[in-house]
Amino acid sequence: MDAMQILVIILSVFLAIFLVLAIILVVLLIKVTRQIKKVTTTAQSAVEHVNDFAAGASKFVSPALIAKFVMKQFNKSRK
Fold first, then answer.
1. Hey, which end of the chain has fewer CB within 10 Å, N or C?
2. Rounded to the nearest 5°, which phi and psi values hold at 4?
């Protein structure tokens, strides 16, 4: 065996190892991106629910605050 043939064999083995590692890494990255997509979908849903709750609460809070202010002014003017 010539030195060049040994070098080619060594480089081929390292190339095969790195190729297998790259395939494993790509598979893991695909799994992570799917999990990130699920998390962002869940977070977006939660934000929409909080937004809906805040919008609903503001419909009830605004009239209550106005009524409280009017009653406070009415009581001040009465005294």
1. C
2. -65, -35
Measure the CA angle with vertex 57, ends 52 and 61; round to 5°: 155
Q: CA geometry: angle at 22 spanning 40 and 11, to 5°?
A: 165
- As a whole-number percent, the residues of the chain with pLDDT over 70 amount to 90
pTM for this prediction: 0.57
Q: How many residues appear in the chain? A: 79
Amino acid at 55: A
Residue 3, both tokens: 């030195």
The pair of three-digit structure tokens given for residue 48, joined into one six-digit string: 């929409």
**Both tokens assigned to 61:** 């809070």
Query: Which of 9-13, 32-36, 48-52 has the least mean pLDDT?
Result: 48-52
pLDDT exceeds cutoff 70 at 79: no
CB atoms within 10 A of CB 50: 10
